[in-house]
Amino acid sequence: MNELTILDWIQTLHAPVLDQLMVAVSTIGNLGLVWIVLGCVLLFSKRYRPVGIGVIVAVALAGIATELVLKPLIMRPRPCDVNTAVTLLVSHPHGSSFPSGHTCGAFAAFGALLFARKPQIPHGLTIAAGILAICIAFSRLYLYVHYPTDVLGGIVLGLVLGWLAIKIVTAIQRKTGWWTAHSTCKHGTIS
Fold first, then answer.
1. What is the assigned CATH class of domain 14-190?
2. Paired residues of 189 in beta bridges
């Protein structure tokens, strides 16, 4: 099935309330700011500080991988550039399409929480982050600014970078010994 066919089908879901919601959700994901704020909030607690650092590192890695490496290298046109008949609900995004930077950043942050949550990160926070990441990913399709494979690539890359960020923070934690006395590292994850 052609990816534009999928995007065109998603366009049939448009409704005024859903349009506003998808624009808002996509805007929340701009520059990964919501995830950086989450990481910074986690920094205020000694217990959650390494996870907060992991979230921030994951989002930074996602930005570097998407905006500085993959997008300039692949230079895939966006669907809104291919099918100009669709009216965009957001400003025309800059840069190329693959992978979705919004999706990659969202799933990198979610991945950092997912891979580090044993047992310290509240289960509800991880679930909420996952739901928001899925909504951000879907919003990019709904808004006709990414292909499904752009979003899928962002999901996979984001999860890998979230895992990598936790591995990096865990390695630094083990090497330097910083952390609170009541925490331990098990199985390569922050716990």
1. mainly alpha
2. 186
Q: Where are the alpha helices (DSSP H) in the chain?
A: 3-11, 16-28, 33-43, 49-63, 71-74, 79-82, 101-116, 123-142, 148-176
To 10 degrees, what angle do helices 123-142 and 16-28 make? 120
- Average pLDDT (75-101) is 93
| Predicted structure pTM score | 0.89
Coil, helix or strand for 69? helix
Which of these, 151, 190, 145, lies nearest to 167 by C-alpha position? Answer: 190
Question: Half-sphere exposure (CA, 13 Å, Cβ side) for 157?
Answer: 27
Tokens, residue 164? 């990598």
Query: Strands 185-186, 189-190: parallel, antiparallel or unpaired by DSSP?
Result: antiparallel
